[in-house]
Specification:
About 10% of the residues have low confidence. The two termini are 53 Å apart. The chain has ten helices and 13 strands. With 414 residues, it is an alpha+beta fold. Strands 5, 6, 7, 8, 9, 10, 11, 12 and 13 form a nine-stranded antiparallel β-sheet that branches.
Length: 414
């Protein structure tokens, strides 16, 4: 009997908790035809964004609710090509994501994206709810055929679209273009959240009905919401180009937030065969700061296009049985021996596995310092000249195998 009453209390509390959940809030942000730039003075955009920003700030600042997810849907009206509208859908969703990131603070791991492209289903829903559409029944029938054709893989059912445009001499299409299409050029933001704790007000239990012996152990129960862990993004890399010429390399890159990252790179290879005067020696490294740009980088950190600035030092000693070249002054500190380089870079990080990327980068800039030229003779090395060396052009190349580390730092399965 005691266990029955205890279970009944748990079930009653769970029911109250489920009834107290507010499932979601959502707003639509409108865009101009063919554009993805955000206009706060268009429609109710300003009020909608203010309301959603205030809601996110409240949910992430210790309110009675926990923010569970933020969903972004990018959409486009059906006119225009498939490729253009697909790009518009992606850009519109990314635009509102960027706006919220600038005005709020939330974990990227709770975000998800959906891109509708040409929103035929949205148009069909609007026609079904609008009694003023001319030749409405015929329009609904053709829209149903278009949707079926698209679902079957035909993304450009031009014959059906041409029929839609000619219904009633074009009157129906003109009405939809003027009155319905503008509402399909949007990005939708949806917040899902759950109570962090549910008060047990209104429940009165007669103590005479529950006689609990203290020698019985009852497990502790917590009704707090699911804890949200902050995501962590890091990458360990090796440059396959340097590895291929026997100069092993290792790099670490850390995501700083707001599509910025910082990394440190180090290369070390110190090989020699003294009896034949063959030397292949180099070591050094650089630091780099990157800004990640493009749609893929907004969806998944450390992925897609990136621009960066870098600076580093390197020393070397290359000889293949004849004239040798040494970067820096022998016998001095690394800072005296090194050549220095700096510049700008562009690259692209391509997902190839769940936790693997291939990062392609090219850096342009300056490389300079002292270079010593010498010749081997009678088991000795004869100095010939020391000169200052300067180079402007490509100074860095990278094809790196990248291992993604951290909570949430995984690529989508394909």
């Amino acid at each position: 009997m005691k266990r029955f009453v205890y279970i009944a209390i748990i079930l009653l509390t769970a029911i109250l908790q489920s009834n107290a959940v507010t499932p979601s809030d959502s707003v639509n942000i409108l865009f101009r035809q063919g554009h993805s730039n955000l206009l706060l003075n268009m429609g109710d955009n300003h009020n909608h964004l203010d309301s959603i920003v205030n809601k996110i700030n409240a949910l992430t600042s210790g309110s009675a609710y926990n923010l569970r997810s933020i969903r972004f849907i990018g959409s486009a009206s059906p006119e225009g090509s498939v490729s253009i509208n697909n790009r518009l859908s992606v850009k519109r969703a990314s635009t509102v994501f960027d706006y919220l990131h600038k005005h709020t603070s939330f974990n990227d791991s709770i975000t998800s994206f959906e891109y509708t492209g040409r929103d035929w289903k949205g148009l069909a829903d609007m026609v079904n709810n609008d009694q003023n559409v001319p030749d409405r029944d015929e329009v609904i029938e053709i829209l149903s055929d278009i949707i079926t054709s698209v679902d079957n893989g035909n993304q450009q059912p031009e014959a059906l679209i041409n029929r839609l445009k000619t219904i009633g001499g074009g009157e129906a299409y003109h009405y939809m273009y003027k009155n319905l299409y503008p509402s399909l050029r949007f990005s939708k933001i949806t917040l899902d959240y759950i109570p962090s704790i549910v008060p047990m007000t209104g429940i009165v239990v007669n103590p005479t009905l529950i006689d609990i012996d203290f020698d019985e152990t009852i497990p502790a129960i917590s009704f707090t919401g699911k804890q949200q862990h902050k995501p962590f993004y890091m990458a360990i890399k090796t440059n396959l180009l340097y590895d291929a010429i026997a100069l092993p390399s290792l790099s670490a890159e850390f995501y700083l937030g707001k599509n910025w990252s910082a990394g440190v790179n180090w290369t070390y290879g110190w090989w020699d065969k003294d009896n034949s005067h063959h030397y292949w020696r180099a070591y050094g490294g650089d630091i780099v700061v990157r800004k990640w740009v493009g749609e893929k980088s907004r969806i998944k950190p450390l992925t897609g296009h990136h621009l960066g600035v870098f600076a580093g030092i390197v020393t070397y000693d290359f000889e293949f049985g004849g004239t040798g070249y040494m970067g820096g002054l022998p016998g001095h500190t690394l800072w005296d021996r090194c050549n220095r380089y700096a510049g700008i870079e562009y690259g692209y990080s391509l997902p190839v596995g769940r936790r693997l990327n291939i990062d392609f980068s090219l850096g342009l800039g300056y490389l300079g310092g002292k270079v010593i030229k010498y010749e081997p003779s009678n088991d000795r090395y004869i100095w010939e000249e020391t000169k200052n060396f300067s180079w402007f052009g490509p100074v860095k190349a990278e094809i790196s195998l990248t291992w993604l580390i951290g909570r949430g730092n995984v690529n989508e399965r394909r």
